[in-house]
Amino acid sequence: MKELVLAVMLAILAVSCNESKEDISVSSKEGKAAIQIAKVNKVSITNEDIKDEFNMLPPQLQQMFMREDGLENLLEELIKKEMLYQEAKKKGITSSKKFRERKAELRKRLMEEYKKQEEFLTNRLTIELLLEEEVDKKSTVEDREVREYYDSNIQDFVMEVPDQSEPQTIEFDAVKDRIRQHLVANKQEEVFNSYLANLRESYKIEIDRDAYRRAFGNISAPTREQGERDPAPE
């Protein structure tokens, strides 16, 4: 049990790098004054601190604090963390050479992670904008198509109704939005697959299966049937 408590405490400390706050009138993200729940010496712990701490925890630890009295237990962990932080400052740890070196290493790692995240999100945004132009704008569905689908598949909109001797047909107006969503999704998939196939014809794609197996072991590498093309002749 002690090992579990220690593991939880270390995990909380690992995801919490914020400095202590000495002003008790902290504002929440919604612009409302945060509620002071506890104090450690002159440092306030608010409801927003507890929420932020919970959101920073990995999912498996969040589950532990979602049980009965979970947030109260999380508050106790925050109190422990604040006591330890204040004690470390009192002993001059934050002024030590080791602290400065470790902090510099931490900042470097955080900057590297930030750059990776920024690159990932930038790439995703770029692709989203491309697909808006090449797929979404070419996947519109006319009102006529929605009506034609309804009329051609009218059997799918017939349902049994309790206390009714005959099956009832769902009115067009009640389902037209769902039909449109269905048709748009189908058209987007069709347009996207066609667009991707055309791109493959103009891009040189090479897959080194030996390198793939060295990197991932027995995980199946992509095959020719999954889209690989031989390199273009030199």
Can you offer a commentary on this structure?
It is built from eight helices and four strands, in the order αββαααααββαα. The protein is mostly helical. Among the domains are: 2-95, no CATH class; 97-134. Strands 1-2 form a two-stranded antiparallel sheet. Strands 3-4 form a two-stranded antiparallel ribbon. Helix 6 (143-152) crosses helix 7. 6% of the residues are buried.
Radius of gyration: 29 Å
Measured distance between first and last alpha carbons: 66 Å
Oligomer: single chain
Instruction: Tell me the β content.
Output: 5-15%
- Helix/strand-derived category reads mainly alpha
Give the SSE order as H and E letters. HEEHHHHHEEHH
Strand order of the largest sheet: 1-2
Helix content: 55-70%
**Overall pLDDT level:** 82
Annotation, overall tally of beta strands? 4
Helical stretch tally: 8
Overall geometry: flat
Largest sheet properties: 2 strands, antiparallel
Low-confidence stretches: 1-10, 12-29, 224-234
List keywords for this structure.
mainly alpha, 234 residues, disordered N terminus, 6% strand, disordered C terminus, flat, two-stranded antiparallel ribbon, two-stranded antiparallel sheet
